[in-house]
Amino acid sequence: MKILHVEGGRHLYGGAFQVLHLLRGLAARGHENLLACPRGCALAEAAAPVAGVHGLPMHGDADLLMVLRLRRLIRASRPDLVHLHSRIGADVMGGIAARLTGVPVIHTRRVDNPEPRWLVALKYRLHDRVIAISEGIGRVLLAEGLPAEKLRIVRSAVDYAAYARPCARAAIAARLDVPADALLIGVVAQLIPRKGHAFLLDALPPLLAAYPNLRVIFFGQGPLADTLNQRIAATGLSGRVQLAGFREDLAEILPCLDLLVHPALMEGLGVSLLQAASASVPIVASRVGGIPEAVRDGENGLLVPPGDVTALRESVGVLLADPERRRALGAGGQALMAREFSIDAMVEGNLGIYREFGRSP
């Protein structure tokens, strides 16, 4: 089967990394992949061994000419179906292009941001199937009027083995410029408001006072970087809280974290949660969106109400004070990832939907 995948993201994390897992899995099963993505994006280079890559100009939701570019590509390559993996214009423009060429089109929805019912009615009319990466996103889509017969659920996956490794603590501590005996809390998320970094900063002062060796590291990049740095400096947290940016070595760092905190206000599922659980890291996260599917309260972490600074502080404090419970939750996370979030399960889930169109062997 020949599938044209369309991904508008420029960085190789989150949804784009899921696309790479899918491309590799499909290629290993004998299917032909084509990938349309922004010229020079990180995914293009990584996907080259398993897909025919077509770098295109992609300028976001207002890029009407994307319809023409994708229509030309579809007519020239003649795929059996088109799989749209992101918004950023690809969901609408890709849907129109596929409709104009008469090719079945699938859209994967990775976020739980609410959309107006009128937009849902118009946009998803373009798509033959809509895949939600969590039950939480599926509930949002149904509540906004998506016809149930169009909806399918295929959870995001994690390369469990890449993160289930021992911690080289001394080397990682030196790399992060923290003491070797530091108690490490990590936040792995884009630096944008809905990821909730500000709530953790509000919760931290009593915890930092109680644990002199506690260090907090924000991994990721985004428009809030300067604002967060200014707030850290203004509140006297410099030296205890740091921004480490986007890291290519996250698989080596995660096993050395004592706790991952994810105080998001909205979240489709949270790939960083899957990665941390694979690395045997206990998690404190918000009970929103698809997070409760990745973080089972009492099994691999603790869930708190979104935006509740007091509950966040208390749950983080409970786990900092109890190393044995942290170890038990970490082991629970590894077991959960191996059981329910494998790459094979994600690839087969997508293939099952492709086969609904009767063109896949």
Automatic annotation (TrEMBL):
GO terms for biological process: carbohydrate derivative metabolic process. It comes from the Bacteria. The keyword Metal-binding does not apply. SUPFAM superfamilies: UDP-Glycosyltransferase/glycogen phosphorylase (SSF53756). Signal peptide: none annotated. Pfam families: Glyco_transf_4 (PF13439), Glycos_transf_1 (PF00534). Residues 175-333 form the Glycosyl transferase family domain. GO terms for molecular function: glycosyltransferase activity. Keywords: Transferase. This is Glycosyltransferase involved in cell wall biosynthesis. It comes from Thiobaca trueperi. The lineage of its organism: Bacteria, Pseudomonadati, Pseudomonadota, Gammaproteobacteria, Chromatiales.
